[in-house]
């Protein structure tokens, strides 16, 4: 493919998927609905070594930000575990169940962090 062909393809993407309202139907088809258009496009890009390298570089720039944002959201959701000294009573100790009080809550709210920690623990085994 010539440089001109690549420029035409680049312009086609920028114009049809950009902010121009006259191409709204193309954008809607590309981004919304039950289509796999974005996945198919990314699979085509990733199929070639040079495309895969470019795609991975793009993903890696954003991955840490995405993961940190998700974990921060999970930690914010854990505010249900906050207790004050007045909450610690003799009844609390006699009725305390680690599974129900902490483990179940952590499993419910810390999906990303749980997967990251489990993967880190299992890197040298067959947990993956």
What does this protein structure show overall?
By secondary structure, the chain is mainly alpha-helical. The protein contains 7 helices and no strands. Helix 3 crosses helix 4. The longest helix has 29 residues.
Helix coverage percent of residues?
over 70%
**Straight-line N-to-C gap:** 40 Å
The share of residues in extended strands comes to under 5%
Query: Residue ranges: pLDDT <50 for 5 or more in a row?
Result: none
Order of helices and strands: HHHHHHH
Biggest sheet details:
none
Mean pLDDT: 79
Structural class: mainly alpha
User: How many strands in all?
Assistant: 0
Using the alpha-carbon principal axes, give the shape: elongated
Helices, by number, come to 7
The Rg value, from CA coordinates, equals 24 Å
């Amino acid at each position: 493919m010539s440089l001109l062909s690549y420029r035409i393809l680049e312009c086609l993407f920028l114009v049809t998927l950009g902010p121009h309202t006259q191409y709204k139907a193309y954008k809607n088809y590309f981004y919304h609905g039950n289509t796999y258009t974005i996945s198919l496009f990314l699979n085509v890009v990733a199929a070639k070594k040079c495309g895969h390298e470019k795609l991975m570089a793009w993903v890696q720039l954003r991955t840490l930000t995405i993961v940190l944002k998700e974990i921060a959201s999970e930690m914010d959701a854990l505010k249900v575990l906050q207790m004050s000294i007045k909450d610690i009573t003799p009844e609390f100790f006699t009725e305390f169940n680690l599974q129900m009080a902490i483990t179940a809550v952590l499993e419910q709210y810390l999906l990303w962090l749980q997967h990251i920690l489990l993967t880190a623990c299992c890197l040298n085994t067959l947990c993956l």
